[in-house]
Amino acid sequence: MRMKKLLIFCFLFQLLSFSATAQEYKYHTVRAGETVYSIAKDYQISEEAIYKYNPDAKESLDISSKLVIPLSAKKQPKEVAKQEEGAQFITHKVKRKETLYQLSKKYDVEVDQIKRFNKQLYAKELQIGEEILIPQKKESHETAVRPEASNGKVTSQQETKTREHIVIPKETKYGIARKYGLTVKELEELNPKVEVLQPGVMLRVGTDVLDEPVIITNKDFEFYEVKPKETLFGLSRRFEVSQDSLVNLNPALEKGLKIGMVLKVPDKGEGQGNLETDETEEFSDKEEEESAKIKVVLSEHLSNFKPKELVVMLPYGTNKIAGDSLSNYEDAILDNRVTRISLDFYKGVQMAVDKATSYGISTKLRTYDTRQSVQHASNIINTADFKNVDAVIGPLLQDPTEAVASKLQSSGVPVISPLSNREMRPYRNLFQSRPTDEVLASAMIEYLRENAIDKNVIIIADPSHNQIKNRLNRILPSARVLMPSDGYIGDAEIAKTLSETSENWVILESTSVGLLSSATSALNRLTRSHDIKLFTTNKNNAYEGDIVDNEHLGRLNMHYPSVDREFVSTGPEGFAKEYEEEFGMLPNQYVSRGYDLTLDVLLRLASAQDLYESFERFKGYTEYEENKFHYIPKPSGGFYNDAVYIMAIDKELNLNVANDIESKIQREFKD
């Protein structure tokens, strides 16, 4: 225990030192006679900047309390302005009762434009006395359109002048945008008052005109709008056409692919080639199913050795440390489970970054403390620079993770949820790396469907598990069902359903300790005269106590779905061995999870242009110390990992992977 405390102290010290630099803030200890006004004046920031990070300061300011001082807050508007060379601004001091809407009307500028150059306004309302930058339109009858690079980021400040276009019958926004070298979004921004196209309506458009008619669709071709993070490689696969052919159809691609670009593509029927028909969905499912059986070793495909910028956001709880030392750490932090998990996970992250260097991958690692707060996580996104970030790992909890994904969705920065097992909102940049409980259950059901054909199957389920019982019944229609209503089942009731000549597969579905204990005890006694194996779709917490005997589970060769293999390699040069040599203990599941997930992300980034392209290029699963990853897209947006282990406990209480394809092939070959 002493070693564990020392280890966590070490992690925390590194974290505090690093975070202070990356986030550009410092701690200020309040002295007698100081006020928020005097402190703000000393640091040359506004009082609101202090309140933003220290909301409790509005109520009281106690001597010796610590305030977070954002050192970069005062620089932010100027830095943004510098990025817009040629942009002109006026500084406006906010008056009482003024609103963004009123300012937008007063200065003839969109509300979003004001927010763009005053990013604090994405997180809070206008404050009296606050000075904000108001972008000014140039004195011209021409509209400027800023071109985008293939990765969706602005790479040029050149201006494209506009001209007028009169809409003719049957024209569409796609066709008009394509003809004048615009994205649909740019066309709509140039014409905010035109909601529905009507013949004769005048539109403002670009001046670069394609040398072909506006109406270009026919039975062989259609329009397709490029989505964030799509690649030419991925589009060529989607529409089953070579990259050269796509460029020939769309000469603008020679200058690079950009978000929102309207492409002329082969007509694949319903759904614009996006797998929306029943036929293509079926093909897609089969393709994903087959790819899940192929292991990919990403270290053999490294090609992108540009330094990676990785951000880790976890609830370390550093704000709970009072005073100038860590003397109170044991009470404030060590007893907090979420904090312990975060520190363990982060150590795995660090070891993965070190491991990646052996492959020639250099990483700029930044970490932020989200404090288990949605608001604080959002503030980090609003104030820190995420422009060149390749991926964000975290936050740990679901709500902050969804908030971060939402804020970074427009820029396409991938956000990887490390541990949440609940279904998450479908943000297109959100990757759920831990299979949900539903995915676990489905994997177990599929295993039973494939392997229980000639077995005598018995389903034991309590009334609260009626839904899973019905699902099992549908794929195993000959199964016998027992549904005890009093939380107990005995030998005699189970014995009536058992076969003396066939192997009996018993599927137990319950969270009741009483039912689990009575059922496993009864089954254990019945193994003396029957061949019995035990299965469940959910090895929940009720199995973890002392009441359900592990030896009974071992004798019953219990099978259950698991996110990880629940054991670590013990080789002379393995990750676990290195950890044990350094810290005197084996890594727990959270250290291993941090290591496996981070190494997978870095190897994916080094084997493709970005994470999105890596999933296009490498369809199989990846596997490391304890975890494996096979990401597939959600129909509604985002990605989830469906790589699941089916674990089996043997009589010696050893754990084995029952659905290990490589081991299965070796066993069959040996037999």
Automatic annotation (TrEMBL):
SMART domains: LysM. InterPro entries: Leu-bd, LysM, LysM_dom_sf, Peripla_BP_I. It holds the Pfam family Peripla_BP_6. The keyword Magnesium does not apply. Residues 139-162 are annotated as: Disordered. Residues 26-69, 90-134, 222-265 form the LysM domain. SUPFAM superfamilies: LysM domain, Periplasmic binding protein-like I. It comes from the Bacteria. Residues 1-22 form the signal peptide. Keywords: Signal. CDD domains: LysM, PBP1_ABC_transporter_LIVBP-like. PANTHER family: LYSM DOMAIN-CONTAINING GPI-ANCHORED PROTEIN 2 (PTHR33734), MEMBRANE-BOUND LYTIC MUREIN TRANSGLYCOSYLASE D (PTHR33734:SF22). Belongs to the leucine-binding protein family. This is Amino acid/amide ABC transporter substrate-binding protein, HAAT family.
